[in-house]
Amino acid sequence: MESVSLTFLIFQGATVIIALVAAAFAWRLDRRLTAMRSGQDGMTKLVAELAETTVRAEGAVRELKQAGGEAGAELEAQIARAKEAAEELRLLSPEDRRRTQRREPRAEPRPAESRAQGFADLLKSTR
Question: Taking the complete model, does pTM exceed 0.70, yes or no?
């Protein structure tokens, strides 16, 4: 009987060793699964933030398109006014064109005496 009990003890020892190895593998697997789950939580949070950022970016693009459209319309209006002004300048007489290019006033200049009097009055008011 002793041989049976020795064989029995060997099988029992092997069973214990196999159980310990299985427990170690189960513990490592549990750690990896926990890490993966927490990683998925982080990934889920990251995806939610990405979706939110995408929505904000789409809104910004819409606003830029609207602003660009408004600026384009304003630019077109300015171009139309400039073309009208160019057409008016083209119809002016040569003397009027020269005066416009030099930005001379149409009114006759004041006489020298009135300019000197205006300068003297300005000096008196600053004292």
Answer: no
